[in-house]
Amino acid sequence: xxxxxxxIVVNGLSGAVxxxxxxxxxxxxxxxxxxxxxxxxxxxPALFRQQMTFLRDNGFAVWPLPRLVEHLQADKPVPDxxxxxxxxxxxxxxxxxxxxxxxEFGFPFTVFVSTEFVANRQRGYMTWDDLSALQKLGGxxxxxxxxxxxxxxxxxGESESAWKARIQSEIxxxxxxxxxHVGDHPRYLAYPYGEANEAVIAMVQQLxxxxxxxxxxxxxxxxxxxxxxxxxxxxxxxADMTEFQxxxxxxxxxxxxxxxxxxxxEKAGVPLLRLQLAEQVQQLSCFASGQGAIxxxxxxxxxxxxxxxxxxxxxxxxxxxxxxxxxxxSGLALKPRFYWLSRQWIRKRDDGSxxxxx
Length: 358
Known about the structure:
six-stranded parallel sheet, 10 helices, disordered N terminus
């Protein structure tokens, strides 16, 4: 497969302290906060409270998403330990279970809204009145498309131009409904299922949106400008508080240049990821979904080549790469801390058909 090349410039990184001081934040992503919803998309209210307590008690600052975006885009300093809380889909239990906890802690948050379910008053989703109430509690509302489709998937017989028009309609319809019912809001878009490729990202950016994914990692200016800013997804399969600590306190991997295979794979294959890293990163550990630790080859000029052991699985998968943060002064006393980068892959079945959702 043809590789795409992205260039990410890291200025003035001569050591761990400089890298740590670079503006960044961590965006947390949730769906349900409930005990009666699927574990793969849920945290319990008790676990959510435990996580919020951890943030409060360990020196984190919870910012509204627009504040972090504005600081990163304008090169304003962001103190170490800034975290943003986001929810996808606008489930009713966010209003009933999460919002009271967030109000208690005084934490702002963002809800990415799939508007069809709200407009149709579908069971299990918030109403427009519920969403307006969340705004008054410090909630930001943003776009999650109208019908929550798989944006990559063309309908049978659908041309490329018709597909692009349909995707644009999904986004603009949601935008119009949000504007009509809740007023002005940021032009942010969370990709349904966290799925996107280079073509979808380009469409979203052309429409004037900042895109947010579900691949893990901390976010800096370059990651924000990529069109698929990382967020750490949480559910009951990621309930360990040590893991929560590592993710919430992570720092963007200081990437100077990045070469990558395309995100979307039509058949079996092994994606290539090559990273040139700033000098303070001398060792890198990477993991592939379903394969565990994978081989990382360090090359000249601090380039690292990463490949899975075998073909990536059908569906969504990732390479996650981390490195231990050297000892440095920071606003957080937590140790260890990690540099972090995640790259998402999406593979269709070998016959060209799309995989079903579980």
